[in-house]
Specification:
The chain has one domain: TIM Barrel (Alpha-Beta Barrel). It has 10 helices and 10 strands. The strands form 2 sheets. An 8-stranded parallel beta sheet has the order 3-4-5-6-7-8-9-10. The chain has a two-stranded antiparallel ribbon with strand order 1-2. It is globular. The mean pLDDT is 97. Bound molecules: NADP nicotinamide-adenine-dinucleotide phosphate.
Length: 272
């Protein structure tokens, strides 16, 4: 599989999304980390209103010296702002915080009961107004996606969900590919809970790579984008150094088999 640092996923609205991104949840020295990441090949930054660092991300993107059109910024609508009118205001506020020309991808952060339909209508309107170029959802299960598509002609460009070898959401991935929804893997490193797993380390060792690099590469080869987070300058570089090796069929099979339904973040399975 020929993947490069600037490899892109095609979205159903004609735009593209860089396959490797930097997540900035609980990011220390956010602006410095984003600048460092961009200087080491990252082209996609994942923030959210909830993270409180949209302004730092925007400043880094404006000042780093890489043309704006080569960079991709995702942010998300927080739960307290769901519903039509509030979501419109929240989208405008996020854009203002970022201080950019547009949000490249605006996501509904969570499938909030009773609010999903109105929030989605608001995102469609924000796209029409040019506030967001692409729109999507996060933490949506197959049931939430089916509900959305039954009520709207606009299919989300992206579903961002927890996804790593220990939570291989195969059914959700298949559903998304069938419907042209790109999947973005959050917690691609399982929040560092599994770095010492002997089976993972064996495959990593075979390629002279680390556990983190192996998990990121697995996600990329499974056809999704990945947004690992690190506040550490060395690990930010390490996590981007995943384009000089290829996991073979047997490696992939063994990594797939690590699935144990591990959730390191929140679980939307039972959200009605
Ligand atoms: N949509 C959602 O609901 C949602 C939920 C969760 C996350 N996200 C997004 O996804 C991003 C990534 O998820 P995450 O931050 O929760 O988890 P993650 O990326 O799976 O793991 C981050 C953890 O791994 C450590 N780490 C990073 N690189 C490492 C390496 N090479 N070796 C060893 N440890 C390493 C980090 O510590 P150091 O910082 O010390 O390196 C941090 O503790 C978030 O930042 C956020 O943007 C979205």
């Amino acid at each position: 599989m020929d993947l490069r640092a600037d490899s892109l996923l095609k979205l159903n609205d004609g735009h593209t999304l860089p396959r490797l991104g930097l997540g900035v949840y609980q990011m220390a020295r956010c602006k410095q980390a984003v600048v460092h990441a961009i200087n080491h090949g990252y082209r996609h930054i994942d923030t959210a209103a909830l993270y409180g660092n949209e302004a730092d991300v925007g400043r880094a993107v404006r000042e780093v010296g890489v043309p704006r059109e080569q960079l991709f910024v995702t942010t998300k609508l927080w739960n307290a702002d769901q519903g039509y009118e509030r979501a419109l205001k929240a989208g405008e506020a996020s854009l203002k915080q970022l201080g950019l020309d547009r949000i490249d991808l605006y996501l509904i952060h969570w499938p909030e009961p009773g609010k999903r339909r109105d929030s989605w209508r608001a995102l469609i309107e924000l796209r029409k107004r040019g506030v967001a170029r692409s729109i999507g959802v996060s933490n949506y299960t197959v049931a939430h996606l089916k509900e959305l598509m039954a009520n709207s002609d606009v299919v989300p460009a992206v579903n961002q969900v927890e996804f790593n070898p220990f939570l291989y959401q195969r059914e959700l991935l298949e559903f998304c590919s069938q419907h042209g929804i790109a999947l973005v893997a959050y917690c691609p490193l399982a929040r560092a809970h599994k770095m010492n797993d002997a089976r993972l380390l064996k495959i990593a060792g075979k390629h002279g790579k680390t556990a983190a690099q192996t998990m990121i590469r697995w996600a990329l080869q499974r056809g999704v984008a990945a947004i690992p987070k690190s506040s550490d300058m060395r690990r930010i570089q390490e996590n981007a150094n995943v384009f000089d090796f290829v996991l073979d069929t047997e490696d992939l099979r063994q990594l797939d088999a690590l699935h144990e339904g591990l959730r390191t973040c929140w679980d939307p399975t039972h959200v009605r």
